[in-house]
Amino acid sequence: MAKLNMVKALNLALREEMEADPDVLVIGEDVGVDGGVFRVTEDLHRTFGNTRVMDTPLAEAGIIGASVGMALYGLKPVCEIQFSGFAFQCFHQIENHAARYRRRSQGRFHCQMVVRMPYGGGVRALEHHSESEEQFYAHIPGIKMVIPSGPRNARALLASAIRDPDPVIFFEPKALYHAAKEEVPDEAETLPIGRAHVDREGRDLTLVSYGAMLRVCREAADLLQETDGVQAEIIDLLTLSPLDRAALTGSVQKTGRAVVVHEAPKSFGPGAEIATSIMEGAFLSLEAPIRRVAAFDVPFVGFAREKFNVPDVARVVAAARETLAF
Amino acid sequence: MGAEGAAVPRTIIETQFAVEHLSILDSDGNLDTALEPDISPDDLRRLYRAMLRGRRLDERMIRLQRQGRIGTFAPIKGQEASQMGSVFALRETDWMVPSFRETAAMLWRGWPIQKILLFYAGYVEGGQPAPGQHDLSMTIPVATQLPHAVGLAYAAQYRGDDVVVMAYCGDGATSEGDFHEALNFAGVWHVPIVFVVQNNQWAISMPLKKQTHSRTLAQKALAYGFPGIQVDGNDALAVYAASRDAVDRARAGGGPALIECVTYRLGVHTTADDPTKYRADEEVKAWEKKDPLTRFSAYLEKKNLMEPDLESQVDAEIARAVQAFEAMPPADPLAIFDHVYAEMPAHFEAERALLAERLRGRADAPPDVEIPPPSPPMRGQRRTSRWQN
Fold first, then answer.
1. Are strands B206-207 and B202-203 parallel, antiparallel or unpaired?
2. How far is CA B384 from the centre of its chain?
3. What number is the average pLDDT over the span B67-78?
4. What is the pLDDT of residues B229-283, one digit of tens each?
5. Across residues B153-182, what is the average pLDDT?
6. This model's pTM is above 0.90
7. CA atoms of A159 and A142, how far apart (whole Å)
8. A22: distance to nearest CA of chain B, Å?
9. Are A105 and B155 an interchain contact pair (Cβ–Cβ within 8 Å)?
10. Residue A94 φ then ψ, to 5°
11. ipTM higher than 0.85?
12. Confidence at B18, pLDDT banded by 50, 70, 90
């Protein structure tokens, strides 16, 4: 057991998977000598050399496009895009090709590849360095979309993503990179993709979230417990697509109320799909309309005003109270 | 800056920026014997047969499309030498990465005619390369297949496999970002790849001079640190000679190369397009005189290598394939849920069951509605998209 932050835990997963499988490569901008802008790939090039830890020219479509080609050949590239805000320059390679090659070739080819990218606010950063764009990827058939919430599940989910035969978009909540350390077991660990985790059990209300917003939900649940005596259950989705609808339905059948919290803008965001899935699966158990707490439908607001846009504990608590009072 | 700026002394960076041009068999049938590549009589016959297969299938497919029996496709007429001269230089174990106008090259690589027809009839099954076949599927978004080709070449090199990758694109593709990213990566990684640019002069309605201010497309390779050569793309011998050199060089560790085949799209961009709107008949007629098949057949005749009845043999083969294609049983609608993920996710089961119910004609399923087949696009009917059914 070692206490690791999320950066070190992700680095550990990469190292373990590269040791276990010579087909696994790390590819991206500054992932070699520099160790990545957040140091997730630090020192990997020393162990595995620069043919497996590849510093690429500065071109996102080239990185993802070439990785698609490598995957079609049978390699398992793990790509790093420095910030999710830059991934629109390779979005076509993800949507048009990584997601579709299995279909297009009728199973003759598939893209076993992972695209890692830091997402979300909380680090006082410039435009394109603070946004949440998970909804775009969760919407693509053929893609799996994974978002860890802590060092231990980050390490286990990254290992699973690398071993998964389908292309996985792996969003890393950059606000949590150094936020906390957690015990991580010595032996390699995986977590099933597509399975949500009940982070906290409760009977009065379900808070649904993932990634960096999990922390906000935990604090909100603490506050609700202390001030209102409300026991909130927290569902940590971990995978957005394919969505664990059974976990959502099961929880709301018990609690009858749900609040969905995410950092992406509200309209057509993950909350819409989550709320609808709950409605379809647990309509007769619902005691109140499902609430969504999300960023407003506005573009980047600048980090000076970020705290007014990204959901915080007060907004989650307020939504929970409205739901409970309905 | 002005005059003052000009007075600042400059140093000269010594570069070697030369673009070669190669032509061996011209449109009048004149052969440059000194450059004539060494191709066995059997291979010459195979080369011509392959070009003819491409041409005759193309013509047959246009009729099938006009009759509504297949959908929109991109004809190759005029580009047979560009495709066959290049792909002929590959081994079966090498990889071929097509865009969407490489029917002749695909036939040569073993794609059955029936499968190509199936693809254009709207069935995804037609996009499946055979097991062990070293070809990617057709890629429609322009130039986006080129980074894949670079990745394949890198992977082959990483595994230590003796593989060269040949990737196709057109003149329009050279304006796309993915073209430049692919060439840049190929140069930096020094991978065994040959880019074949079929410069057919027109990207739908855009003539080459509006596509680029560069004098040649071949020279674009020079900026990425590897050679580019321009060849007469209607001269199968020149295309082959340049391709063989580039493939041999890549195989020997010499890195990437680019071949610009100067050719012409004698027909439509796709069957949804009417080129009389944007180009003059005289231009087309001038290029018809440079037809790659006429030139090559004359060359073979001089060598006494023309096979008798070749055209009827090819046509009979195509007719058999069309017959087999049309005799295929209707495809299973439930197959739309296959080949999305390695394992079907939970929510697919409900959706698949919904469709299955409907197909069984259950009372609670919505009634079947007869949907008439789409009528084929008419001549003169232009669509806004560059690739649209």
1. antiparallel
2. 22
3. 95
4. 999 999 999 999 999 999 999 999 999 999 999 999 999 998 888 999 999 999 9
5. 98
6. yes
7. 19
8. 10
9. no
10. -75, -50
11. yes
12. confident
Task: Write the CA distances from A29 to A26, A98, B204, integer angstroms.
Answer: 10, 19, 36
Asked if the peptide bond before residue A289 counts as cis, ω within 30 degrees of 0, the response is no
Q: Say yes or no to pLDDT of B3 above 80.
A: no
A65 touches B: beta carbon within 8 Å: yes
Please check whether residue A194 touches B, CB under 8 A: yes
Helical residues (DSSP H) of chain B, grouped into ranges = 2-7, 41-66, 80-87, 103-108, 113-120, 145-159, 177-189, 208-211, 236-251, 281-288, 292-302, 310-326, 346-359
Query: Was domain B20-28+38-326 assigned CATH 3.40.50.970?
Result: yes
User: What are the structural domain ranges in chain B?
Assistant: 20-28+38-326, 333-383
* Residue of A79, A106, A163, A244 to mutate, interface with B, max B Cβ within 10 Å: A106
Name which of B269, B322, B388, B274 is nearest B61 in CA terms.
B322
- Given A45, A97, A110, A129, the catalytic residue: A129
> What structural domains does chain A harbor?
2-184 (3.40.50.970), 197-325 (3.40.50.920)
What is the chain A residue with the closest CA to B348? A242
pLDDT band at B360 (very low <50, low <70, confident <90, very high): confident
For residue B95, the cross-strand partners are B165
